[in-house]
Every structure is written in structure tokens, then in C-alpha cells.
Specification:
Number of strands: 14
Order of helices and strands: EEHEHHEHHEHEEEHHEHEEEEEH
Structural class: alpha/beta
Strand content: 25-35%
Low-confidence stretches: 315-320
Helix content: 25-40%
Length: 325
């Protein structure tokens, strides 16, 4: 997959046969996004067009309303890897600061038509773009008639009590319902971080943990204990993960700690990137009377993690094939 960055007005021209383009934040690249992309890819293949997926270098709210910007389900780099897995030919990372100041008509003519050779443009029914968000599906349709591309307005995938959306999945993750998030995403929610030194308390009680330092822009699961798979350089380990403040020891800072089951005793993870794939929440975080009660509960949690991950619903052989956050 070819990746385009920088000034989008200088991206083209692409190959002369033209392209089928879709545009969006695509945070999470969830099942609703995948439906749009898969249908676009199928049509592009049939019409011998390049499939182009355009995303943004940041969430638009980070610029227009920073206090309302949501934590992200996936980084830009993970979105790109997911696009590639789906079979997208070309991905473009739009610099939001520049794109938002463009007049809607110039964005369509300069970027979609002249740079990318649009023959088909697929957007959601609520899509807005350009300066002051003046651009919408109606404007795209009228400009498409002038420049010879077709507009496909794609309805949002609806399930349960509403449309599939990144905001719904963020809510699932934030409340700890990672099993529901897994269903909505079509894969486990994943979180990556660099392993940093902790206070050593886990090792002192015989249950060492890897403490993750994560990007503050990324979503974290709600506090609690989780069954997860930890991926270190393509090697997978079952993991009991605690997200919380460790109230038994009077903690007040949110941490992500993973105990890797069956990992070699000499495995040194400091400074290494670890990716956690969350499958299920075992229990909420709680305060214990002391170390003995805590250790007993952690050992019970580890048994429960084994039980859930060994149930047949999760394969831990080979690579999980799930990009990190």
C-alpha cells in the first residue's frame, strides 16, 4: 500500500485510470468502517480503479475544540496498517490544519479530482468538510457532475440500539466492556506502550508485572482486571492486566500493569514495546486488607484468565494479527 503525506495538493497525479475514494477519521477502523472500505474495494476492483482511503493526522476536535477531543481507539499508524490489511491501494494522511482552511470546492477540485483522479467518492451521510464545514454530500454531488465522478452516500451500519460509531466503542472501552468493543471492532481492543520501571511491588510478592507507559491521546479501558494477550515482538503470552490506581497501596495515579503468564523468568522487557489485546474483564478494581488478601485474589485472577483464554474462543498460537494502538 502506498502512503501519501504532506501537502495533499501535491500528491498527484496518480495513475490515469482514476480512483475510488473514501474520507473519514476512521478511528478504530471498526466493522462499520470496514463495511464501507470492503464495498469500495470490491467496486474499485470491478471498475479497475485504485482504492484510496483518506484519514486525518489528528482527530478534528483536537484542533477545533481541544476540550472535547476524545481519546483515540487507534493511532494513525495503526489505521494505516488496518487499511493495508483490508486491501486498500493508497492511503492519504490529510493534515487537518491545512484542510480545514480550504474552501470546500477547492478541496474537491484540487485534492480529490486533480491530485487523486476521483471517479467515485464514498462518504457517510453525515460527512462535512472544508472551511466552516460548508461541504456536504449535496455539494460533492454537484461538483461530481461537473468533473465526472460519482458520489456514493453510505448509511451508517446500525446494530442494537443505534449506529455503529467510534464514540460508542470508546464508551464500551471506558466502562471496561472490552468484550462488546471486541465485537464492534471485529478484533480485540489493543493498547501499546513502552515497558518502564515500576515500584517493584509485583516482583516482591512473586507476581512480576510489566508497567506500560502509553500515549496520553489513546483510550484506556476502565479500571479493573482483564484477560488479555500480550504481544512482544510477535511472541504472544496470556496476560492478567490491571488498569487502575492500586488502592490497596494508597495509589492515586492510573497505571497499566500486565503479568505475563508462562513468560521466561529472564525475559527483560524494560524499554521494549508491549501490545495488549483485551478480550474480557475479569472484575472491577478493589481495595484489599493487605498483601496476603491481594496475592490470593491475583492468583485467582490468573486462574480465571487461563480459563477464559483457554476456552477455545481465543487462539494464542502464532501472531494475533492485530495491529497495536
Amino acid at each position: 500500500m502506498r502512503v501519501l503525506r504532506g501537502d495533499p495538493l501535491r500528491w498527484g497525479p496518480l495513475r490515469p485510470h482514476g480512483s475510488a475514494i473514501t474520507i473519514g477519521v476512521f478511528d478504530g477502523v471498526h466493522r462499520g468502517h470496514r463495511k464501507v472500505l470492503e464495498e469500495l474495494i470490491a467496486r474499485a476492483d470491478a471498475e479497475r480503479l485504485d482504492t484510496v482511503a483518506l484519514t486525518f493526522d489528528r482527530h478534528p476536535l483536537e484542533v477545533v475544540a481541544p476540550d472535547k477531543a476524545p481519546p483515540l481507539l487507534t493511532s494513525v499508524e495503526v489505521r494505516l496498517r488496518l487499511f493495508e490489511q483490508l486491501g486498500v491501494d493508497i492511503a492519504g494522511v490529510l493534515p487537518f490544519d491545512e484542510v480545514r482552511s480550504m474552501e470546500a470546492e477547492w478541496f474537491v477540485e484540487g485534492v480529490l479530482v486533480r491530485a487523486l483522479g476521483a471517479r467515485l467518492v464514498a462518504v457517510g451521510t453525515d460527512f462535512r468538510f472544508g472551511h466552516d464545514r460548508r461541504g456536504d454530500a449535496g455539494l460533492l454531488m454537484s461538483i461530481g457532475e461537473r468533473f465526472g465522478f460519482e458520489l456514493d452516500e453510505v448509511p451508517l451500519l446500525a446494530e442494537g440500539d443505534g449506529p455503529m460509531s467510534s464514540s460508542r466503542i470508546r464508551a464500551m472501552v471506558s466502562t471496561g466492556d472490552v468484550a462488546a468493543a471486541c465485537e464492534a471492532l471485529g478484533r480485540p481492543f489493543a493498547l501499546s506502550g513502552v515497558v518502564v520501571p515500576g515500584d517493584g511491588r509485583g516482583r516482591s510478592i512473586g507476581i512480576p508485572t510489566a508497567n506500560l507507559e502509553t500515549d496520553e491521546r489513546l483510550a484506556l479501558p476502565g479500571t479493573g482486571v482483564y484477560a488479555a494477550i500480550a504481544d512482544h515482538r510477535g511472541t504472544n503470552y496470556k496476560a492478567a492486566v490491571n488498569v487502575g490506581v492500586r488502592p490497596t497501596f494508597g495509589g492515586d495515579r492510573l497505571t497499566v500493569e500486565a503479568h505475563l503468564l508462562d513468560a521466561p523468568t529472564d525475559l527483560d522487557l524494560y524499554g521494549e514495546t508491549l501490545t495488549l489485546h483485551f478480550f474480557d474483564r475479569i472484575r472491577p478494581e478493589r481495595r484489599f486488607s493487605g498483601s496476603d488478601e491481594l496475592v490470593a485474589q491475583i492468583r485467582a485472577d490468573i486462574d480465571e484468565v487461563r480459563l477464559r483464554l483457554d476456552s477455545g474462543a481465543v487462539s494464542t498460537s502464532g501472531s494475533p494479527g492485530i495491529p497495536a494502538s
